Amino acid sequence: MFRDNYSNLYNQIRPSEELINTTLERTQKIEKSKRRVIYRHRKLLIVAAIICLCAVLTVTPVFAAANDFVYTVMYQISPQMAQFFTPVQKSCESNGVEMSVLACYIHDDTAEIYVSMRDTGANVVDEKLDLFDSYSINTPFDSSAHCQRVDYDESSRTATFLITISQWGEQEIVGDKLTFTVRSLLYGKNEYEDYVVPIDLSKIDKSPKTQKQYVQLENITDAAMEMLAEQDTYKDATDFGKMSFSGIGYVDSCLHIQMKYEDYAENDNHCRIYLHDKNGEFPSNTDDDLLDGYTAHGLYEFTDLYTEYSVTWYDGNVRYDETVIEPNSNYSFEEFVNEISNYEIVGDFYTTNDAYHGNWKITFPIENMNTDEITDKSEPITEPETEPEFELKTLDLVSKEDYINKMLNSIDFYNEVSGKIETNMNNGDIDNIEYILNFNDGKAYEHEIGNNYDNETYVQYGLKFNFDNINKTQNKSIIIEKLKSDENYADHFNSDFQTNYGADYVYDKDFTGINSSAGLSIYPRQLVNDLMYDFNLWEIGDRITYSGRDCQIIKGNIPSEFQYSFGNAETFKLIMDRETGIMLDLECYTPNGIVTSYTHTTNISFDNVEVKDFDREKYAQYKLK
Amino acid sequence: MNIQGTLSDESIESIIGHYSQMVYRLAFARVGNKYDADEVFQEVFLRYVRKNPKFNDEEHRKAWLIKVTVNCSKTLMSSMWYSKTQELDEALAIEDENDINLYYELQKLPAKYREVIHLFYYEDMSVEQISNLLGRKCSTVRTQLTRARAMLKDYMKEEDYV
User: Fold this and answer.
1) Whether the predicted pLDDT of B25 surpasses 90
2) Is it the case that residue A388 has pLDDT exceeding 60?
3) B91 to A16: CB separation less than 8 angstroms, yes or no
């Protein structure tokens, strides 16, 4: 029976112990912090009240920024509470808005940060200001965050937020500094609830113009369906700026309602629409589990008349949502049309202005405080420990085994590198690759340009983002979170090399995820496996300087079984960086001396390497692959 | 259970212990992969502690958890970051070919159909119970079940149509 088969399948599906334990810990932390936050907010209210009282009873001093004033009072009146938070009071200004990090409290895997945004000329800070989920701290781990606006001061046009960021996987926030970044602000929020849309459903076109559209239907991507072609008929039915009705009609006996969202990634326009009859009957909406930030409209069936589903597609910076209302089988099309003509569309519409962008970034020192203790400020404060860079290994190059080991384990000999290479070894075409890696930060970047190929990859915070600049598509994937800093980062593999050679050679795995194109140079393991496993076929050559680096030439014959991989070349010359084992240059030759495969390094540096930040705005209009 | 009809121990540990499999399996049924099911699972219980809802009885709590699981799955699937890749995770250790085939057939259904299939065939809920829980009319639920069955016709026998 199907029921048995289904049960058999799902009995095997269960949450892992790790997931359960992680979830339990996170929930228990929230329970704990809720009790503390209530305490702190009560205190904050008391402090605020005292501030007001002081202002009334005394000659009002020159009013410094609200944040400075409040924080100073916190220390004067409630030092015990203030001990939870470390004063920061650093500011930066961008595009007419000043951001200040007021205070910070780090406990285990959670950072609580009071931040204010003050309008210095942009005219965007208002009482509903929103950080548009554009805030972040520099953390190598996946994290979840919550932002709460706790105050707005009209006189200084300053909005204050409490941001709580928790790293996943029990990863404590460590280090001697923290960088808090905000990229965008959302302002000008308006709400129009229970809004009756002035569209007469008795006059809906039964033969509208349609288009075949590839849509996203819940989990099914790129389903080709017949959708409404955009109409102008209803675009002025509502006045919600960049959110509008772009089509209503009957297609294949179903009622279609299409909405258009222009510049969808730049604002938070969204709505929830319903049908209700002329008696005003519509579904109760007391379910408080309905989600904030609901970005697709939903229709809630409240009669036995129909079922519905929604589809979405994108056209550049425009998103279309189309709801398809399908009559139940016991209704003929005419009966369905007659019923619908008695209904009207009602909705809750939420609009904002387009996001206001800036580059607000503050780096400040942090201290890790125990959640269960109140630090006694009378004790001497020790300097926070600086996170050491990962200890680099050293290996003198004496024997051929030393060369093998160094090239196999190049990852052990540097913590950061940036460079550019030109190669034809990926797919036969000439590729130019720029790469930047920083294991300390757990970040990497790679840009590969080839024949009809332009791909950028970012690795940040346990995620790998890939952007196809030709087709304007994007993809995200999870990478293994371990970094070099982790206890067991050295994940030793038995490679083909070991199988071939039978020796106890191992190599460490790169966890940044950038191991594709630039990897053939900076992790030359495959080359070692293909070219150097037979010690009889290669020799150590001259020591030279190449691209400013102290290098060694290695040359030899390519094993016959791998010659095809190098364009049927038979010999090779490789230039290895002596300090790190990185392959800086390689040429493979036919017997006539023709170079069939090559990789040349045009630039390399191991100092002051900074990985580009991921710029969400640049790729906002890229379609998800 | 105490005399009010709820668990005697309402600590989050007890709640997770009692409902983890139900929540996870429903999340998996809807999103179709382990990674997203893990996310939904965490989010459901995080919402539970944040909102701290009060329940009349255990059925009420169960219904709340089911509804939130469905809603969280919806949010995830409408997120621009939702991964559309639906490979059967090796970590799930499902080896039987019939089970694997059934899994892939289920993934062809719209998520809404999968959730009613799961609630009907796995959680043994009636059409009326599903209808009340998800806020859909009975006829809607029946229609969704009917269509799902039609799409799964190769796996359905006469006795499966109730």
Assistant:
1) yes
2) no
3) yes
